[in-house]
């Protein structure tokens, strides 16, 4: 994410991962009382087709991700837009990812986010071979080895705290076919703001020179700062 172009691709990847995995979510949620089927179908006809552009526009205008929707007969209907189909072919999926030049998909969240990740992996395996790259070990605290593996981050700079979610275990896979490859990763994140991982680098304050080869010249006071400002920064540029 060192350039604006890479940032756009990465943001698009998050949206694509969310939209795809939501469409094929393997979770069997508790159903809530909703309007009858005809009412839902009528409302859905008046909304645009779900796309990266529609979701991005909503986020820019409202400063948050769209979350409204309703359940009907085990199917989810978002308020903002409608899913174009209940079935997506491997050809359509490949074309979508290739057209947007997506090379990395990231899913963030708690145990439900992990299920979205598994659903997305299942989709990619329709036309790609996916293999495990790394998985967190243990659930009571974030795994320092996971977040330093394959990066220039130093374990000595990372401070970890207790994690409440027992089903939140970060993991990464690499999916390949004959012509392309995609990195797919689930990053455990329970809250919008917490301190499950922070970093301390006071000793570098006056003599650190940032580069692709050296660790970052900054500190993270929250887990979210660490993920977006450090971990994803170095893993997407290496």
Describe the fold and architecture.
- This protein is of the alpha+beta class and 238 residues long.
- The chain has one domain.
- 35% of the residues lie in helices and 17% in strands.
- The protein has seven helices and eight strands, in the order αααββαβαβαββββα.
- The chain has helices at residues 4-23, 37-45, 52-62, 90-99, 111-124, 144-148, 223-237, and strands at 69-72, 75-78, 104-109, 129-135, 158-160, 171-176, 181-188, 197-199.
- Strands 3-7-6-4 form a four-stranded mixed sheet. It has a two-stranded antiparallel ribbon with strand order 1-2. A two-stranded antiparallel ribbon has the order 5-8.
- β6 and β7 (181-188) form a beta hairpin.
- α1 (4-23) packs across α5 (111-124).
- The chain is globular and about 60 Å long.
- It starts with a helix and ends with a helix.
- The model is unreliable at 1-13 and 15-34 (pLDDT under 50).
Short précis:
This protein is of the alpha+beta class and 238 residues long. The protein has one domain. The chain contains 7 helices and 8 strands; from the N terminus they run αααββαβαβαββββα.
Fold blueprint:
Blueprint: H1 4-23, H2 37-45, H3 52-62, E1 69-72, E2 75-78, H4 90-99, E3 104-109, H5 111-124, E4 129-135, H6 144-148, E5 158-160, E6 171-176, E7 181-188, E8 197-199, H7 223-237
Parallel strand pairs: 3-7
Antiparallel strand pairs: 1-2, 4-6, 5-8, 6-7
Helix pairs in contact: 1-5
Mean pLDDT: 79
Uncertain spans: 1-13, 15-34
Percent helix: 25-40%
Q: How large is the radius of gyration? A: 19 Å
How many domains? The number is: 1
β-strand number? 8
Q: How many helices?
A: 7
How are the strands of the largest sheet arranged?
Answer: 3-7-6-4
Tell me the fraction of residues in β-strands, as a range: 15-25%
Largest sheet: 4 strands, mixed
Please identify the structural class as seen in this structure.
alpha+beta
Shape category: globular
What gap, in angstroms, lies between the N and C termini?
10 Å
Write down the secondary-structure element order: HHHEEHEHEHEEEEH
């Amino acid at each position: 994410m060192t350039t604006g172009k890479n940032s756009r691709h990465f943001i698009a990847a998050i949206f694509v991962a969310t939209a795809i995995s939501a469409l094929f979510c393997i979770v069997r949620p508790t159903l809530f009382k909703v309007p009858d089927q005809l009412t839902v179908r009528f409302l859905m006809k008046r909304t645009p087709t779900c796309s990266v552009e529609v979701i991005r526009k909503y986020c820019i205008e409202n400063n948050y991700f769209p979350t409204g929707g309703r359940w009907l007969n085990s199917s989810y209907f978002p308020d903002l837009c409608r899913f174009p189909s209940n079935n997506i072919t491997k050809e359509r999926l490949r074309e979508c990812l290739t057209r947007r030049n997506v090379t990395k998909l990231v899913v963030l969240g708690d145990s439900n986010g992990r299920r979205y990740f598994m659903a997305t992996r299942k989709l990619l395996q329709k036309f790609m071979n996916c293999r495990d790259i790394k998985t967190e070990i243990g659930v009571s605290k974030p795994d320092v080895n996971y977040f330093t593996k394959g990066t220039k981050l130093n374990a000595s700079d990372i401070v970890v705290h207790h994690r409440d979610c027992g089903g939140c275990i970060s993991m990464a896979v690499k999916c390949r076919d004959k012509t392309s490859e995609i990195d797919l990763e689930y990053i455990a994140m329970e809250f919008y703001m917490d301190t499950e991982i922070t970093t301390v680098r006071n000793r570098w304050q006056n003599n650190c020179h940032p580069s692709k080869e050296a660790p970052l010249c900054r500190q993270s006071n929250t887990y979210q700062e660490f993920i977006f400002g450090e971990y994803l920064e170095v893993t997407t540029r290496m």
